Every structure is written in C-alpha cells, then in structure tokens.
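User: Predict the structure for this protein chain, please.
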Amino acid sequence: MADIVVKKSKIEGNGVFAARDFKKGEIILRLDTGHVISEIELATLPENEKRYVERCNGKYILVQPPERYVNHSCDPNTKVESFCDIAKRE
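Assistant: Here is the predicted structure, written as structure tokens:
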C-alpha cells in the first residue's frame, strides 16, 4: 500500500491520499469484497460502523481500511468501476 496513505483530512476525519503520481485510468484501490455480512449482522453493528457498509449485488459488504476512508468529493480524482477506484486524471 505504499501508493496511498491514510491520514487526517483537513475536511472530515481520515482520508485516503496519493503517495505517488497516478496515470489516468490506473487502479488506485480495489475494494475487498470478502467481508460480506448478513442483514442480522448489519442490524447489530454499532452505528459508527454502519457508515462503512456498502450494498453490492444484493449483498452487504463491510468496507475495510483503507477503502473505508475514501472521502466524498464533488470534484473527485477517481471513479468507481468494477469494485475499483480508478484515476480520472493524471
């Protein structure tokens, strides 16, 4: 994971930051889809963990670090395709 770092964001909590330059179209992160949880497990998660749950193809995935720290942006540097964050620009 030397390509990215998780650190405090000036905007909100922790964030994911590039530790090197990425080329347009390069995969920056690949979502780990191996942490599938049931609806019962979802219901019992603490509220602060529920914010890290994504619903994909009818399954609930508990997003793990560092992916869980990717912050929202109105002008994002990445796009999501096939469970990956991909660089939109150099």
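The chain has a mean pLDDT of 92.
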